[in-house]
Amino acid sequence: MLAQHPFTSKINLIRTRLTLWIIGILAIGFLLLVLITFLIAHSLLVRLTIERLQQNVTSLSDAFGQENPGTNLTLVHNQLDAFSTSKSYLQYQNLQGRPIASSKNMGKLILPLAQLKSAIQANRVIQDVPFNKSSFMMYGHVVVVKGKVQGYILSAYNITDNNAIDLLLTLQYSGIVIILTLAAISVWLLVRHIMLRPLEHLANAASQIAMTRDHSLRLHIGKRPDEINRLAQNINSMLYSLEDAYQQMQHINDLQRSFLADVSHELRTPLTIMLSSLDLMKKEQGRDPEFQANALENIHSETERMARMVTRLLMLARTDAGASFAREPLLIVDIINEACRQSSPSSRTIQLECQGFEIIEDAVVAGNADYLKQVFLILLENAYKYTLDDGKVTVIAAIQRQQVAISISDTGIGIPSDDLASLFERFYRAKNARTQPGMGLGLSIAKSIIEQHNGTIRVESILTQGSCFTISLPLLNE
Amino acid sequence: MRHPRQVLTRTQLLEQVWGYDATLETNVLEVHMGHLRQKLEANGGSRLIKTIRGVGYVMKG
């Protein structure tokens, strides 16, 4: 069972610990309280006893002084008995310390006058006098009759067992035990009710979400801003970001799936054309040289197209993997010329105009020739692709502030302004571009290559008028 | 021409001609380039070797 519910055992542990802590703190508090009350009660009681003792003895000696105690011993006995209690003794002794009269509870005991003499003179109470196997508090007073000292009234109070304080202590201790037991039970129940019930709800809801794998579910958050609700809020925000990440992943997955479909389609088309051309050539067996030349030209251009596509895919994979490429100083004009030569379609009537190439004749940038050529190929091919017949593609080169700027503009269909922001995202294709074949990869590849060359690429476009892509690369020349 | 239109840096040229352990003053290269240019352009030929300031030299046909 424990193995199945590790959480429950932990919760119980917290609960036990909390209860034990509270009980411990309460117990220490109560014990301190008892100790303090005991000390206060004790000192009060002692003072009270002393006062009573002094009062009794003083009033007795006053009374004896007025009516000579030598005359009526019965009266003296009665008076001593009247003032004595079960715990206090009273004795009347003469000057030599012989007892003349004692309270009844004393029997034959004689209070030690010698020990008390100094205390009597100082009018003091002596505490803790060992007498008759117990501890006594003692007080004495002279009896003066007609100006002459006749004897002493001595009193002793047994302080060995103080019933009142014992009772108080017993009451307090049992009270403490009862209160602690009640506190333990109520803490045990309250902890379960206030703290652990909501936690259990939380745990259940969370496991529900984990089980159903429904990332749109959220935990219920209570009104009070307590710790548990804060936890629930945190879990919820975690779920939000999880859902976000999950959706993003789903989106990328979808994109990749369609990308795979697109790629296989794009690769299969040239292959089909090549295969059918080869088949026809086989059937013809070289009887028609013109046909053969045509077919070969066809196969050649399709192979080139495929090679370009594969190169681009490879580049994408490499930039994704973050592989760096070798860089060397390059004459940028050579790369642009090469790209212009490779990309111009022979079958179309689109004019290509180059401006300012003489300005960048000696311009050198640090970079990789293959990658940079790809960038220009991508931009030029795009320009041709989206420009109608009899249109114009212009490449303008310039140098500004230690940067080579090459802009490639066309008179094509343009790009809707709300597509401009996402244009360089992978697989993104503008709304009006979807009639043309393509994968939405070119510009993202171009951007990542240019950025690896510490350059920038930006686009301006007017819908139906044309687009202009501008690449800036840092110049190496001083 | 072995490296037409290829920009070669000073270090590359020094290492190729004098070897890795060359401890030559860099203006030795300039002097040699000057001699080369004089010979190449002696009969009214156009400038073949161009200087790329801060980088090196390039040979253009």
Helix-strand layout with pairing:
The complex is a heterodimer of chains A (478) and B (61).
Chain A: H1 6-66, H2 73-83, E1 88-94, E2 99-102, H3 113-122, E3 126-131, E4 134-145, E5 148-158, H4 163-212, H5 227-284, H6 289-321, E6 328-331, H7 332-343, E7 351-355, E8 364-367, H8 369-385, E9 392-400, E10 403-410, H9 442-452, E11 456-462, E12 466-474
Parallel strand pairs in A: 7-9
Antiparallel strand pairs in A: 1-2, 1-5, 3-4, 4-5, 6-8, 9-10, 10-12, 11-12
Chain B: E1 8-9, H1 10-18, H2 27-40, E2 49-52, E3 56-59
Antiparallel strand pairs in B: 1-3, 2-3
Number of strand segments of chain A: 12
Give, in spatial order, the strands making up the sheet with the most strands of chain B: 1-3-2
Largest β sheet strand count, sense and barrel closure of chain B: 3 strands, antiparallel
The H/E string of chain A reads HHEEHEEEHHHEHEEHEEHEE
Q: What's the architecture of the largest domain in chain A in CATH terms?
A: 2-Layer Sandwich
What's the rounded overall pLDDT mean of chain A?
A: 83
**Straight-line N-to-C gap of chain B:** 9 Å
The count of domains of chain B is: 1
Total tally of structural domains of chain A: 3
Shape of chain B: globular
**CATH topology description of the largest domain in chain A:** Beta-Lactamase
CATH class of the largest domain in chain A: Alpha Beta
Strand content of chain B: 15-25%
Shape of chain A: rod-shaped
The sequence of SSEs of chain B as H and E is EHHEE
Enzyme class (chain A): transferase
GO cellular component, one term (chain A): plasma membrane
Pfam family, one (chain A): HisKA
Keywords (chain A): Kinase, Membrane, Phosphoprotein, Transferase, Transmembrane, Transmembrane helix, Two-component regulatory system
Describe this structure as you would to a colleague:
The complex is a heterodimer of chains A (478) and B (61). Chain A has helices at 6-66, 73-83, 113-122, 163-212, 227-284, 289-321, 332-343, 369-385, 442-452; strands at residues 88-94, 99-102, 126-131, 134-145, 148-158, 328-331, 351-355, 364-367, 392-400, 403-410, 456-462, 466-474. Chain A is an alpha+beta fold and 478 residues long. Chain A has 3 domains: 6-165, 2-Layer Sandwich (Beta-Lactamase), CATH 3.30.450; 215-323, Helix Hairpins (Orthogonal Bundle); 326-474, Heat Shock Protein 90. Chain A has a 5-stranded antiparallel sheet with strand order 2-1-5-4-3. A 5-stranded mixed sheet of chain A has the order 7-9-10-12-11, with helices on one face. Mean pLDDT of chain A is 83; it is low at 1-5. The mean pLDDT of chain B is 82. Chain B starts with 7 loop residues before the first strand and ends with a strand. At the A-B interface, strand 6 of A face loops of B.
